[in-house]
Amino acid sequence: MAGTIRIIDTSVLCNLLRVPNRDQESARATEELREAFASGDALLLPIPVIYETGNHIAQNGDGTVRRKVARAFVELVQKAFNGTIPFTPTPLQDTDEVLGWIAEFPEHAAAGMGLGDLSIIKIFHQQCDLNHGRRVVIWSYDKHLQGFDRPPLL
Q1: Residue 1's pLDDT band (boundaries 50, 70, 90)?
Q2: How much is the average pLDDT of 55-68?
Q3: Which pLDDT value is given to residue 148?
């Protein structure tokens, strides 16, 4: 059976890259990544997570640290897009899809959920619809995203 589809959240990517003030779980993230590789999991990297992580890098640490982490980030994202690491960027959404997310955003914002998290949840549901025979999970250290874990449907 194929491995789990893991949708990587910003909280995990920041830990993997050791973004200052966002890397309290870096050892855990590294171990879980090792386990994901060993299990043959698919690692999806949502475009909103790329944007959010870039923002966190630019806002944390001194200039020397930001540059170092930014270089590691650029290398990871470039390799993901080139297919040389097992992270797969999700496709860019079309205008109608984004407008649908935007229309739902005020309700989610009122509950304290940002647009990035809403987009990750939407990607989760898309992957569930596309992959009935595989487990789909949002890999996150944020409590409000940890419950998104759908087992394979038989």
Answers
A1: low
A2: 93
A3: 97
Write 67-76 long-range contacts (CB < 8 A, 24+): 69/17, 69/18, 69/19, 69/20, 72/17, 73/17, 76/17
- In angstroms, the CA 10 to CA 20 distance is 13
Mean pLDDT of 47-67: 94
**Angle at the Cα of 17 (from 25 to 105), degrees rounded to 5?**
80
What does the block give as tokens for 104? 């739902």
| Ordered structural domains, the chain, with CATH | 5-150 (3.40.50.1010)
Tens digit of each residue's pLDDT (9 = 90 or more) over 126-143: 999 999 999 999 999 999
